[in-house]
Design goal:
This protein is an alpha/beta fold and 189 residues long. Helices cover 48% and strands 12% of the residues. Strands 1-6-5-4-2-3 form a six-stranded mixed β-sheet, with helices on both faces. α2 packs across α7, α3 runs parallel beside α7 and α4 crosses α5. The chain is globular. The relative contact order is 0.21. The model has no long low-confidence stretch (mean pLDDT 95).
Length: 189
């Protein structure tokens, strides 16, 4: 892939390998320096906050082996019953409040409503911006809109354009950043 830093190249290769989709590469988008900022935050112990237990389970082993980053899911804070919203949106708001002012790397692979709530709270100044948002919700309802909103947010982020995404891909992206940061620190993954 042309014009990518070594870290960006690693990340795109990891996403293509994890998805088995050679057409995925042109759909990967990010803000300038997003990969480097994410790797730096993870190396400094940023909390990894995911929207699903699946993403948390896929990231936790690499996080443990590298910088011992705490890994949480917004579902830990989500109410059992919800009226007028989604569990993911309410869980995101509660998690951001509970984890403040800890630096965060946020992974959204399933819940566009959680991504939208994060963007709303940051825009309103109700919480500090995460060090990095990996926004790759999958599906057809609200997914592409939430990714467009992320793209326009000004936050440091990685996203996957279109309807593709998922827990496995956000985990692959985060694991690529963890591995790169660990190897840059001359450690053995």
């Amino acid at each position: 892939y042309q014009g990518l830093s070594p870290l960006e190249q690693e990340l795109v290769e990891r996403l293509v390998h994890s998805s088995g989709d050679l057409e995925l590469a042109p759909q990967v988008a990010w803000t300038p320096q997003a990969c480097a900022l994410g790797a730096q935050a993870l190396a400094k112990g940023a909390v990894i906050l995911t929207d699903t237990a699946m993403a948390a389970a896929a990231v936790a082993p690499m996080a443990r082996r590298t910088f011992a980053n705490p890994v949480h899911t917004i579902l830990e804070w989500a109410p059992a019953k919800v009226l007028g919203s989604t569990r993911s949106a309410l869980g995101m708001a509660a998690a951001l409040e509970a984890l403040a002012p800890t630096p965060l790397v946020v992974l959204i692979g399933s819940a566009p409503t959680a991504l939208e709530r994060l963007l709303e709270l940051v825009a309103a100044g109700a919480c500090a911006p995460p060090a990095l948002v990996i926004g790759m919700p999958v599906g057809f309802v609200g997914v592409e809109e939430s990714k467009r909103h992320l793209g326009a947010s000004g936050l440091a982020h990685l996203r996957l354009e279109g309807s593709k995404g998922g827990a496995g891909l956000v985990a692959a992206a985060c694991n690529a950043l963890l591995r790169h940061a660990w190897l840059a620190a001359d450690q053995d993954p």
